[in-house]
Amino acid sequence: MKTYPYFKILFLFAFIAIVGCSKKENPLGAPTENLSITLSSDAGTNELEVLSVDQMVNFVITGNDGVDYTSSAKLYVNDSEITGSSYTFSTTGTFAVKAVYESITSNILNFEVIAETERALTIDATRAMNNQTITFGLLDSSGNNTASDATFYVNGAAISGFTYSSATEGSFEVYAEYIVNGETFTTAAKNFSVYIPKRNVVLEDYTGTWCGYCLKALAAIDSVKVLTDDKYVSVVAIHKKSLGEEPMHFPQVNDLQAEFNIPNEFPQTQLNRTVPWNSFPNSLLYDYDAVTSIAGLETDLSVAISSQISGSTLSVDAKVVYRNGSEPGDKLVVYLLESGIIADQKNYFNDNPSSPYYGMGNPIVDFVHNDALRNSLSGLFGDNIPETSPFQEYKKTYTFTVPSEYNIENLSFVVMVVKADNSAKNSQHAILGETTVYN
């Protein structure tokens, strides 16, 4: 089997368009709604709950189907299975509790058990956007917040009050000093970070294995990846069948073409969904600056992705944070991609010595295709984002049963936030099982 790596330089080669024909396909079905379970407790619902020694907590496990799974699920405290649906925390320390029903794992609840003179330091945002206000808490064993009576130190310097913000990105350490019965105590230090949100552009490549001239668009995209150090660019390859078979044909390609006025003359490449990004007329060059001039710039919203798979069922959390809040008409687009697909690729540059595909044959046998759009987990043009306040996280979870013909090890996601006019405001990409933090 042959594989062909990315090429760092886009060579000049002949400008020729090719017309592809396809019939209208029915839209893809909605992603399967698989069972998920949620773990809750009578101690509270905060990200971290503080307990006193020997406090008992009762747990409840509820499915998204409305069924109570408490009696049939297993509970784990720090990965050790317990008996029943309650647990007494008899020692100080930190504890993570989860539930498992068959192969389905719940959310994790975190507890910190402290002695009477101890205090639990909390940070409401361990990864915050620049200029975002970070609030520190100091909880006693009864769960009371005593932050107003303590002194907080960030990177060794005392601050006024119990909030902090930074205009610059970086890593920070915070601890608190407090007094109990006339004696001064110091908490253990905790870390947090501040990031500056960066613009991650989207390049959508309309292509096909039958399209011998589509390799020039692929080479241009590879060149952009080199120019941006393979960062801040999310690529979606949208395949369409012509007269023959197309192993990566995306059934809703006609709907995308209609929405974005994409002609049947491939290759066609779109920047941030709505802006054509093709070679100049009567030229072989692509406007790289149109991409590199905005990729990585500071912006006002950030996207994060986390995902997991159990058997053939994947679950992905798409998360968004705005600096200034959402805008009416904002939507969340979540695409499932597959890479490493082996299929012969027509190559009309086999005899062109200035092409990176020179001498590779026509077709190129066992060509490796990456970033092929397989399914839209959201609506094709996105799901509405409700009104979201500045620095408030919006999260939506999607589940999907992976068809047997997909290679689970090669799946990835592209998540976009788009405006009402469908133009992409920012994006993020991640492979299945990878957690990408806010960028």
CATH topology of the largest domain: Immunoglobulin-like
- What is the arithmetic mean of pLDDT? 90
Task: Pick out the low-confidence regions.
Answer: 1-27
Corresponding CATH architecture of the largest domain: Sandwich
Q: What attributes does this structure have?
A:
439 residues, mainly beta, Immunoglobulin-like, 3 domains, six-stranded mixed beta sheet, 34 strands, 6% helix
Could you explain how this protein is built, in words?
- It is built from 3 helices and 34 strands.
- The chain has 439 residues and is mainly β.
- It folds into 3 domains: 18-31 and 198-431, Immunoglobulins (Immunoglobulin-like, Sandwich); 37-105; 120-195, Immunoglobulin-like, CATH 2.60.40.1080.
- Strands 3, 5, 6, 8, 9 and 10 form a 6-stranded mixed β-sheet that branches. Strands 12, 14, 15, 17, 18 and 19 form a 6-stranded mixed β-sheet that branches. Strands 27, 30, 31, 33 and 34 form a 5-stranded antiparallel β-sheet that branches.
Helix-strand layout with pairing:
Layout: E1 18-19, E2 37-41, E3 48-52, E4 55-63, E5 74-77, E6 80-82, E7 86-89, E8 93-101, E9 104-105, E10 109-114, E11 120-123, E12 127-129, E13 134-139, E14 151-154, E15 157-158, E16 163-164, E17 170-180, E18 183-186, E19 190-195, E20 201-207, H1 215-227, E21 233-239, H2 253-260, E22 265-266, E23 268-271, E24 275-276, H3 288-292, E25 301-310, E26 313-322, E27 331-338, E28 341-342, E29 368-369, E30 372-376, E31 383-384, E32 394-401, E33 411-418, E34 424-431
Parallel strand pairs: 3-10, 12-19, 20-21
Antiparallel strand pairs: 1-22, 2-4, 4-7, 5-6, 5-8, 8-9, 8-10, 11-13, 13-16, 14-15, 14-17, 17-18, 17-19, 20-23, 23-24, 25-26, 26-32, 27-30, 27-31, 27-33, 28-29, 33-34
